[in-house]
Amino acid sequence: MPAKFIFTNILGVFVFNENYKLVDGLLFKDLDQFDEKEKHEKQIEEKHGSLEKPSGDDLYKILEFFKDKKYLSELRKKNIALTRVSVKDSVNNDLLIIQTIDAVEELNRTINLLTKRLREWYSLYNPEVSNKVKDHEKFVSSIVQKKKDKLLEELNIDKNDSLGAELKEKDVAAILLLASQINNHYKLRSHYEKYLQELEKETCPNLASILGVTISARLLDHSGSLKRLAEMPASTLQILGAEKALFRHLKNKRNPPPKYGMIHEHPLILNAPRKNHGRIARALADKASIAVRVDYFKGEFMGDKLRKDLEKKIKNLR
Amino acid sequence: MIAKSKIFEVYEDSNRRNIYTVNLVPGKKVYEEFIAKQNNIEYREWDPHSSKLAAAIHNRCQNIFIRKNDVVLYLGSSTGTTCSHVSDIVGKEGFVFAVDPASRVMRDLIFNLEGRKNVAPLLESANHIEKLAERVSLVDVIYQDIAQKSQLDIFLKNINVFLKKQGYAILCVKARSIDVTKKPKQIFNDIKFALEKTLTIVDQRTLEPFQKDHMLFIVKKK
Ligand SMILES: C[S@@+](CC[C@H](N)C(=O)[O-])C[C@H]1O[C@@H](n2cnc3c(N)ncnc32)[C@H](O)[C@@H]1O
Asked: Does B141 contact A at CB distance below 8 Å?
């Protein structure tokens, strides 16, 4: 009986007659051959004349042909190989950005927690500094760099008036060890912030120029990939991060819909009068949405132009 | 004492509180499941809080229609929790195609199911029927648990192409992932109605108290 169907899967190219009996075929040696399946199909078709791709009941019968111990074990081998390669290949800059922003935010939480501890601890020894220097980073770097006497002198406080106790050298050393670790955390954070900037310059320069490095990274983190962010309507991007409020609204229309999510942290919104927040969020999301699409399709840099348009638009609001 | 339950290849305690499958790869755990040994056989506890199929069995599902030696298409395999028990049930002579498009969970699945010679991992979306057709065979059973809006459509497409006639298919539905504004009951009714158009529904189970607003349907292809 003459050959009728041609069917290709990861195992090879198979030719069946109208009774679904295998009459010819070619087994792929590796995944590269599977990648070039069109070429191999052509060769086989040249040999047999025109062949049909099976569908419906024909496809059913052919898939049934492969439901067989021998083919299943081959399908397993090839599927494992293909899946391993795909998992490897799925690693990209998006994922590096996501891990980096998560690390930055975890460092922030750690730094805050440990600095509060440090202030309590160090204040047994020299409370005036913690009382006067409210900025965490400045506080930590001051006590790492300077001794108690010097710090008090800079604050114009007589060291005999300090409320702090005189501690043994090893007790002070224990406290300062924590301070220097926190100081290293600050250095690490700023290193990662610069790295994030570099990554985004390659991956999403337009988005970063509209929203800034941190908000861009957070949006990527939240959506999972640049692709998903690019496929999103601007109105979704605008409220990304406000899912709870959105669900509340969808369940019960008496709850107002959210006006913004993570983009609310943007200085153009934070520095604007409250009544304009919603409209600025809208304009910002529109531009960000254009920017991320350009980035996803690897278009030219147009961040400056987008930002100018945006600033003009916002000026007209006031 | 662990003994056979009413369901093929599924075991239970004498007090019927816990269910088990026989570990296909003795000595290897997949998730944080408890391992019991009896007469040199290793049983893995099947936790209804981690697996919707186990939850359905706890809720008196009498037959899950997955048998020893079956070939199963598992859509939405995630890190392999339920999939590993399905692999135990079908055994050495059975087979499971484990499909998930998320590379992060696939990485874990590859590690978790290492040594299970009856599982093939596929990093692919259940929605891409043509791509799947290049990687699977006809199957005896389809199991689908993907929290996606279009899950019903995906389920029907896969049944149409990959399930043998008279074969069974299991669908886990999470109401919230279909529509947050509708009542779960309404959603389940709609799905039931749609399934009945072309298939025979053989069982339907809510998964409370293990999973909120979930329903597991078992259907038979005509
Ligand atoms: C609730 S989890 C499944 C849990 C798993 N069945 C278990 O019990 O161990 C849902 C999974 O479906 C996957 N998923 C989402 N869309 C899918 C699609 N189109 N095709 C296949 N899997 C999909 C997700 O990546 C996720 O891992």
From this structure: no
